[in-house]
Write a structure and sequence with these properties.
Elements lengths: L3 E7 L7 E7 L4 E4 L10 E8 L2 E9 L6 H14 L4 E12 L9 H12 L3 E2 L9 E8 L5 E7 L8 E6 L4
């Protein structure tokens, strides 16, 4: 896309899939790699420089059929990144109902909720993004980093778009 820098991580071993993040050219951003125990197959991490500070932005895809090992790596990545100013977004496939009630509060969902709480992250998407479920979420280390969240019509797939403003001091 003209005027944007692309950061991507393609799905390995099969056709299609992966994650892609576009950041405006006018914003100073660079990709970062996490340690091996936190390196996720379908996640990309960038630092955005905002004046005298840095905001880490991550985009994650968590398959509904994820293995325990890969799920643990996503959790390790969130633990690592949440120690700094951050926004973590993506399709987490946990099946959260609108209003924050889960259909089946399984063990993985409980672990994820505990991770978000223990990492002092705010979940900023409060409306359904696919059917009745909130599968796509935006987590932030500070609630005020994310403003004006809007759920919009799908754009070529079955998940709604999430539009929001990132607000940080420059």
């Amino acid at each position: 896309m003209t005027g944007y820098v692309m950061f991507r991580k393609d799905r390995l071993g099969r056709r299609g899939g992966g994650v892609i993040l576009y950041i405006k050219e006018s914003i100073q951003a660079y990709e970062i790699k996490l340690e091996k125990e936190a390196e996720c197959e379908e996640a990309v991490w960038c630092n955005i420089v905002t004046g005298n500070s840095t905001l880490t932005v991550g985009l994650v895809y968590r398959s509904p059929n994820i293995s325990m090992e890969k799920n643990k790596k996503i959790h390790n990545a969130i633990k690592k990144v949440s120690k700094r100013d951050c926004i973590i977004m993506g399709d987490f496939n946990h099946g959260l109902y609108s209003g924050h009630l889960y259909r089946v509060p399984g063990e993985r969902i409980k672990e994820f909720l505990n991770l978000v709480q223990d990492s002092f992250l705010s979940q900023n998407v409060l409306e359904a993004t696919r059917g009745e479920n909130v599968l796509d979420i935006v987590l932030s280390s500070q609630k005020e980093f994310v403003d004006n969240v809007k759920i919009c019509e799908p754009l070529g797939w079955d998940h709604s778009q999430i539009h929001f403003i990132i607000k940080v001091k420059g």
